[in-house]
Amino acid sequence: MSSAESSLAIAVDIGGTFTDISLLDRSSGKVWRAKTPSVPQDPSEAFLTGIRLALADAGAEASELARVLHGTTVATNMILEGKGARTALVTTRGFRHVLAIGRQDIPRKANLYNWVKPERPVPASRIVEVDERLAAGGAVLETLDEDSVRQAASAIRTMNVEAVGVCLMHAFANPAHERRVAEILREELPDMAVTISTDVLPVVREYERSLTTALNAAVMPGVTSYVGRLERRLEDEKVAAPLLLMKSNGGVAGAAAIREAPALTALSGPAAGVVGARAIAAACGIRDLITVDIGGTSADICLIKDGRIDLTQHGKVGDWPLPLPMVDMVTIGAGGGSIAAVEDATLTVGPRSAGARPGPAAYGHGGQDATVTDAHVVLGHLPEKLLGGRMGLDVEAAREVVRKEVAEPLGLSLEAAARGVLQIVDNHMVGAVRVVSVERGHDPRHFTLVPFGGAGPLHGCALAELLGISRVMIPPAPGVLCADGLLAADLKAEFSRTLPKAGAIDVVTAKGIFGELEQQADAWLTVEGVPEDKRQTDRVALLRYYGQGGEIAIPWAETREAVEEAFTAEHKALYGFALDAPIELVTLRVEATGLTSEPPRDGLQPGGPLEAYDHAPVQFADGARDVPLIDRNTIGAGTRFDGPVILTQLDTTILVPPGWTGEAHAVGAIILTRQEGTAV
User: Fold this and answer.
1) Quick one: which of 23, 81, 15, 78 has its CA closest to 43?
2) Which of 223, 250, 636, 653 has a CA positioned 20 to 30 A from the CA of residue 548?
3) Which pLDDT belongs to residue 440?
4) Listing from the earlier edge strand, what are the strands of the sheet with 653-656?
5) Cβ burial 467-490 (10 Å sphere, 16+ → b, else e)
6) β-bridge partners, 637
7) Which residue, among 464, 451, 474, 478, has the nearest Cα to 641 in the 3D structure?
8) Which residues have CB under 8 Å from 243's CB, separation 6+?
9) How far apart are CA 314 and CA 336, in angstroms?
10) pLDDT, tens digit (0-9, with 9 covering 90-100), for 245-271
11) Is 171 exposed, middle or buried (0-12, 13-18, 19+ CB in 10 A)?
12) Would you call 226 exposed, middle or buried from its count of C-beta atoms within 10 A (0-12, 13-18, 19+)?
């Protein structure tokens, strides 16, 4: 079968500890999944290994693939670790120190007296100026001096840099000068990666636009090299299917678009999981949910109301604001590999992680630190073998590190120490859940909790009890849900324009700008090969009260009154009040979507009573219990059960404690419900 005739799509999500793979036959709904350890020194190696594992399970050939989707943390890790390419920045004369000045603010949790401003990704010594000037509305005040650009190129040539960004004053209103600067730089510096702000973030705010451009330039060589390596590996495997990569906005785009703006992939991995969780929840009739993605290093929390995944332009990666459209979520350093340590007689858990190597002591790779996973092993929450029996756990090593690093320093029993580790990490995550719920006007008790990731289902019921949530949904394959989410993701892109001057809503002017942005969106959808009947565009307005420094995104309505009413309602929901002040329109945005067809779901057949394949002693707060171990693959639709029980599967382990009941939904999800009268 040729790739053009095939209905096979494969998704690969590379995490810090494991690489997850899902292979889908879109015609039948059949899914094959695989999981393999990540290879930090060359992520493309695990990428190819995972594809081969999934294809072998399906009995298919690589040449049969019609679509290859990928979620990568390459750009994110380079930004976090400061390992991007050495970069120069070109700006308008007089604005060389925009990055150094920044916003002149101090992080909320930093000590006012000893905080040190982080080193900028591009120091002033590598920022060069050119002669030109645009007015706020885009009018040319000073024509671009091309000789100054060539002089800038000459200066950059001596800096030993690999990439250069271009961010000129008010270029978002008129990109002509930036585009010409880029043309000259590419002529003068043919081997250098060049990026301009209007291709990455064409909106107001000079510091954020300059910073994003600089970061995009810094990761461009690395991401371009990585994507090229993937394409070569796929070509060697006889894969003719296009490579699509996940973006932070919850959609995917072709490799060419990612090469131009690789910063769009920052925080894309967690976004895929949110998309997958929404798809499964929708199939179960659930529209209000809180997702908690717990992996080896971090936990990512997102709230979905009425089935809508909200975007934010106030995201951060490490120390840096990155105001690109991204799924609105909170990330904390809490995962299965989070290290538990006693410092000054106080137990702390995370954000340091044991990572993939050496990992938790229980993994048998020489880990010497106690981790969250080791605490689970001590309490009996995990079976002796993971990954379908391919990975054994070293129980004694886990007990030894928890005893040595936690129990003995605190004078606790082994079980009490392990339970304390889990209580601390659970409370860290509860705080993050409250950020996306309570702090934004939502009562978490009215939502369904959806835990996923390799460690998520071990913590789901405990988190729900702490939050007062009575229903938990476990997806069919929670440990590889980010890969499943890639298969459900639409193609997405945003096209924005900041108004020359913020002011009252002018519907006629706004419609004209929306029309131009929709033309850009349509051209992008054509390049990506999206059929006419699969195209969707949504209009969004970013508004604020006069005098405010930040905007709120509101779906566009046809009248000024309707837009202002929607803004006021959203402001009240977020902040608890509305102001008696003029409302200003700042930026207009068109969100373009290439819709992915929903495949048939390979649902469960009706099932009978549960049958345990083994039993294991598990330590709960009220003592040890002999708990049945159930292979989740043996559970049929409609099967009900009471906790305590442990469900095992290839990609995760599900802990159902006493006081909870479960039922298997026809689409494969497990719905857990807290029994009435159970203490929270």
Assistant:
1) 15
2) 250
3) 83
4) 614-620, 623-631, 645-648, 653-656
5) bebbbbbbbbbbbbbbbbbbbbbb
6) 606
7) 474
8) 68, 70, 227, 230, 231, 234, 254, 255
9) 28
10) 999 888 999 998 899 899 988 878 678
11) buried
12) buried
Contacts of 382 (CB under 8 A, 6+ apart): 362, 373, 376, 393, 458, 653
Provide CB contacts within 8 A for 212, sequence distance 6+. Answer: 197, 200, 201, 263, 322, 323, 324
DSSP assignment of 141-206 equals EE---HHHHHHHHHHHHTTT-SEEEEE-TTGGG--HHHHHHHHHHHHH-TTSEEEEHHHH--SS-H
Q: How far apart are CA 325 and CA 6, in angstroms?
A: 33
Written as six digits, the tokens of 374 are 């080791």
Tokens, residue 169: 């004053």
Those residues whose C-beta lies under 8 Å from the C-beta of residue 136, and which sit 6 or more positions away, are 170, 173, 500, 501
113-131 confidence digits (pLDDT tens): 888 888 899 999 999 999 9
Q: Which two tokens stand for residue 22?
A: 């899902």
How many angstroms from the chain centroid is the CA of residue 308?
16
Q: How many residues are there in the chain?
A: 680
Question: Which regions in the chain score pLDDT beneath 50?
Answer: 1-5, 679-680
The whole-model pTM stands at: 0.83
Measured at the CA of 132, the angle between CA 130 and CA 133, to 5 degrees, comes to 130
How far is the C-alpha of 123 from the C-alpha of 119, rounded, in Å?
Answer: 8
| pLDDT at residue number 465 | 96
Tell me the DSSP string of 499-547: EEEEES--HHHHHHHHHHHHHHHHHHHHHTT--GGGEEEEEEEEEEETT
Cβ atoms 195, 160 nearer than 8 A: no
Q: What is the pLDDT of residue 4?
A: 45
